[in-house]
Design a protein that fits this description.
Blueprint: H1 2-10, E1 36-38, E2 41-45, E3 49-55, E4 58-60, E5 63-66, E6 72-75, E7 79-86, H2 100-116, E8 123-133, E9 136-144, E10 150-152, E11 155-157, H3 161-164, H4 166-172, H5 179-196, E12 204-210, E13 213-216, H6 229-232
Antiparallel strand pairs: 1-4, 1-7, 2-3, 2-11, 3-12, 4-5, 6-7, 7-8, 8-9, 9-10, 12-13
Amino acid sequence: WQQAMGSHTAGGSQAPPPPPAAAGGGETQRTQYPYVTGTSVIALKYKDGVIMACDTGASYGSTLRYKSVERIKAVGKHSLIGASGDLSDHMWDDGNSLGPKEIHSYLTRVMYNRRNKFDPLWNSLVLGGVKKGPKGDEKYLGMVNMIGTHFEENHIATGFGNHLAIPILRAEWHEDMTFEEAVKLVEKCLLVLLYRDRSSINKFQIAKITAEGSTIYPPYSLKTYWGFSHFENPAQGAVGSW
């Protein structure tokens, strides 16, 4: 808090009063900045279920501090959850029997409630699952962010992926994709993010969930190519003093 207020006091302006004291005599603290964070999560529905993917890096500020953080977990018996944002705010679950739609609704209430208390959980959560319903096996994919904004979709990307991967998914996704086709599409998105997102690393994890259950595959790397002309001379043709 003192660091955040330093720019006000240095200029001579009056600093705001300190936060109220807690019942135990200390100061009430709220998370103001996420410190150790994970980047984009990609997820989409395919013919038999839902596939989800992300890298295993975690950044301490702008430093890629941790290289083997798994951000996709099985939740209950019917769902997978992938998380972007602050690692300390991630919420995992035990072996409950709730369906993906119910878990998504619960997470939406939790995130919106914390936002209303000005004590948000600094995450974007992707929830995918398959559960038997009145029409047979029903696939579900949704997301919720740190202020409680939530939606369902056939394909979802958080973080940088919301800008760079969504156009690819809109152009190439179709409902009857096989698992192999879904993997290729997800890997294409992950490569684009690796090339363009400084917080991404070349160590990825893919998971799937079907009516038979969830499978989280071991991390692996993708073949990359850094010889593109724009990578070799990124400032060529740029306008400005940089």
